[in-house]
Amino acid sequence: MFARGLSVATSICAALAEGGQALRDGDICVIAQKIVSKSEGRTVELAATVPGRDAQDLAARTGRDPAMAQAILNESAEILRPHPAAIIARHHTGHVLANAGIDASNVEGGDTGVVLLWPVDPDASARAIRAQLNAATGSRVAVIIADSMGRAWRIGTIGTAIGCAGLTVLEDRRGKAVDLYGRTLQATVIAIADSIAAMAVLAMGEGDEGTPVALVRGAMRWTCDEDGPGAASGLRAMEQDMFR
């Protein structure tokens, strides 16, 4: 079990060694958000959370526990859509998602009011883990911190990069590639980090599989020596938000 202060990088190296594997240049480690949050001590006991007036109002509008509503408000820059099914919030990091990413699944004490928050800065967490992995192995690897998120136009969740280091986040093909008929692409921007995160989360599972890290190989073309701009660079600017 991951606990506060436990090194994610050291645990990854130990698991690889136990399986007779080692990191190579160009590898991508996709890490479940929960183990990063647990290692950073991002658990909250709702019983110790005192809801304010805004939280009481949000709870009344959505049928939520007032303490949970307060936790969501604490993690949010803005509440976009309060609804009984989910409170759609803009997290302090800029990501828009349900309930500000707060979750009780796969959390010890989750059935008694313990919930887990996102890392304060998932991109910074990814950079730190990458630096530790590179130092420990001498290899140049990339790191993605992934969580399952819904999509505005689709049903269901999909693995999404919330933190990233050493990897191209977006590949802009506009004006640089053509289709099968020679037409220059005008609108194609490929979400590289999200695509890799989705594939990895599908392999890791989201229930009791107990597989919090996936090693992705064969994607070296998208890795880079620098940490890069992080997953935040893949967020749509607020002025381009078509749902506001």
From TrEMBL:
GO molecular function annotations of the record: coenzyme F420-0:L-glutamate ligase activity; GTP binding; metal ion binding
Pfam families attached to this UniProt entry: F420_ligase (PF01996)
Family matches, as InterPro entries: F420-0_g-glutamyl_ligase, F420-0_gamma-glut_ligase-dom
Domain Coenzyme F420:L-glutamate ligase-like: 4-218
Keywords linked to the UniProt accession: GTP-binding, Ligase, Magnesium, Manganese, Metal-binding, Nucleotide-binding, Plasmid, Potassium
Record's protein name: Coenzyme F420-0:L-glutamate ligase
Superkingdom of the source species: Bacteria
Source species taxonomy: Bacteria, Pseudomonadati, Pseudomonadota, Alphaproteobacteria, Sphingomonadales
Annotated source species: Novosphingobium resinovorum
Tagged with keyword Ligase: yes
PANTHER family found in the cross-reference section: COENZYME F420:L-GLUTAMATE LIGASE (PTHR47917:SF1), PTHR47917
